[in-house]
Structures are given as C-alpha cells and as structure tokens.
C-alpha cells in the first residue's frame, strides 16, 4: 500500500492485524483501532493500554499510531 499511515480495525480482533503486518514486513506507519466506537461498552484505560502493548510487539513505537476503531460502519440511529 502506498500510504503514509494506514488505519486498521484491531479492537475486536485483539490486535491480530499488527502481527500480520509484521509477518509481511509492512514498512510504513500503522494506526490500529483500540476502541470499537460502535460498542456501547467503553474499554478501561488498562484494556486499551494492553492492546497497544500487544501492537508494540509487532510495530515499532515510532511507527504506531493510536486510533479509534470505526470499522467502516455507520450508526443506525
């Protein structure tokens, strides 16, 4: 992908996509979502931090962005 930063769904997949990016040697910055904004449940700070730590196992800190997880959905209300 020719992009500076890609935003990815990662909250519901428990950051699985970060590992897949690393496996394929993705060289650019990535912004995995850490909070599913369509869920009525708000994650705790520790839950979001745990997802980020998992992301850091695969993506170096200087290339990791923190994003909400929008999932390309629209609300029905």
TrEMBL record:
Keywords: Metal-binding, Methyltransferase, Transferase, Zinc
Annotated GO MF terms: 5-methyltetrahydropteroyltriglutamate-homocysteine S-methyltransferase activity; zinc ion binding
UniProt-listed SUPFAM superfamilies: UROD/MetE-like
Keyword Protein transport: no
Keyword Ribosomal protein among UniProt keywords: no
Cofactor: Zn(2+)
Single GO BP term: methionine biosynthetic process
Domain Cobalamin-independent methionine synthase MetE C-terminal/archaeal positions: 1-77
UniProt-listed InterPro entries: Met_Synth_C/arc, UROD/MetE-like_sf
The protein's name in its UniProt record: 5-methyltetrahydropteroyltriglutamate--homocysteine S-methyltransferase
């Amino acid at each position: 992908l020719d992009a500076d930063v890609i935003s990815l769904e990662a909250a519901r997949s428990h950051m699985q996509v970060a590992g897949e990016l690393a496996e394929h040697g993705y060289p650019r910055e990535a912004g995995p979502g850490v909070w599913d904004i369509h869920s009525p449940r708000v994650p705790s700070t520790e839950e979001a931090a745990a997802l980020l730590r998992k992301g850091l196992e695969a993506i170096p800190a200087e290339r990791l962005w923190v994003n909400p997880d929008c999932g390309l959905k629209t609300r029905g209300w």
